[in-house]
Model the fold of this input.
Amino acid sequence: MGFSYLMPNYARLPVKFVRGEGVYLYDDRGREYIDLISGIGVNSLGYNHPKLTKAICDQARELIHISNLFEVPYQEELAQKLVETSFGAEGGKVFFCNSGAEANEALIKLIRKYWRDRGEDRYEIITFRGSFHGRTYGSLSATGQPKLHEGFEPMLEGFRYAEFNNIESVKNLINDKTAAVLLEVIQGEGGVNPADGDFIEELYNLTREAGILFAIDEVQTGNGRTGRYWGFQHYGVVPDLFSTAKGLGGGVPVGALVAKNEVAEHFTPGSHGSTFGGNPLAMRAGLVVYGELESGLLNHVQRVGEYFKSALESLDKGRVKGKGLMLGLELEKPCKELVLKGLEKGLVFNCTAQRVLRFLPPLVITESEIDRAVEVLGEIL
Done:
């Protein structure tokens, strides 16, 4: 690539996509690709989805942005979906923003505000090595990957890092300053690493015994990605608060913080905000995504997720990890060059944690499309 006005912080792949249809992308030369990454888990309904496209176009003709100085159309409806699918009858409340990093910033602030309002000097949050919570200062400080901290030190204080799937390492970090534990039930950027069932149960019970908050980052695992509305629903626990984003808007930027009522009430007027957060365009998009999940897409993800997992296992090339349509294939050697080989053969996926091929296809992918993709993967491997 020659001269560019763009900052050089992205190592971009040599392809320029110009349109999409279903699970397929097309570049500026008209070449077709099967998309197994969906904009890093964002394009949950694929490309040119008729209901999503219509809702976005209709809303753009009416109102794109109004700010949270006023009541915003469709916020209440989407917030209700997020609460009913997570906390149910117990209830909760939602704050809308624009991304996963913003949702995690809000989560961190709400945890601290909760304890400050109670008159307790608790501010430390225990997170986990291998985690990824975003690239803003708060969310980056929460992220347990030293390589991502390099060059941006010092990190913000108040974060301590335990070993994932190791309950003793968490117990060793709890003290009178501990405010909460925050984790992903499947570490995405960390290599598609699922939490053990026993670990989540022990961790949840530990937070109850210690009287601290249990927080989950559902940025990548939420909104049907794993075959349930929320990743934590595979483990039989309910957090006190959780963040989400990525697939929530089907491609339109939107994030959310969802919290139980007794926690949410500490975000009093003026304590937090977002200019663009929860704009009518994003809310309409989110309602389409949830309409599709409720209309059978969630069951579809469960079915094709198992199918995809079995197909990857049949390749016998490495360990297959993950749930639903959030899957990883862990190889014995670095896999970065395989991403380029995939592009050459019309297949889009990415490499994370150096040795893990990560697959986050649109939730609408079919068995026949999986067959075609896995056949190409077999050739590459």
